[in-house]
Predict the 3D structure of the following.
Amino acid sequence: MFAKLNPVPALERPDLLPAALIEAVRAYVPSAQVFEVDPAHADTETLCQVYDLPMDVMANAVLVLGRRGGDDRYACCMTLAHRRVDVNNVARRKLDVRKASFAPMEFAVEASGMEYGGITPVGLPDDWPVWVDGAVADSELVCIGAGIRGAKLLLSGADLLKLPTAERVDDLARDIA
């Protein structure tokens, strides 16, 4: 399904990856592949429509944020595109905060050092927890952001668990009703 997009080993196309991603791919997921996309079509639904890709192999990085005792607490939650992160229950409890929400776009871009629409757990700062929904972890292949809007990474869901702060969290996300 991705062959028409000519994916190649990610380390062969450093021009498609921010510096932090190159190092993270090299260290943790060297088997990842990358392919170029039109940045105007980087958002998941549009990407699937334009490139005729199924939603069930797309995984989104959702940055959540909460506050406790004046401290900001945050995490990157990985979910399949046809599911939604349970921010108000699972993520909130794991963050140990009274209220959790999706991180504002400005915070997400600044804190991750990546472009909105290309944010990925690969290459996030070392203090970012990465929670991988069980459905993502069990996927043979997922398409995720590559740090920029003009590229996407392909790797197995299990590869995401190789990231240093990654943790499998079953039931982190739910099917959209």
User: Anything to note?
Assistant: The two ends are 26 Å apart (CA to CA). The mean pLDDT is 95. Residues 59 and 161 are 14 Å apart (CA to CA).
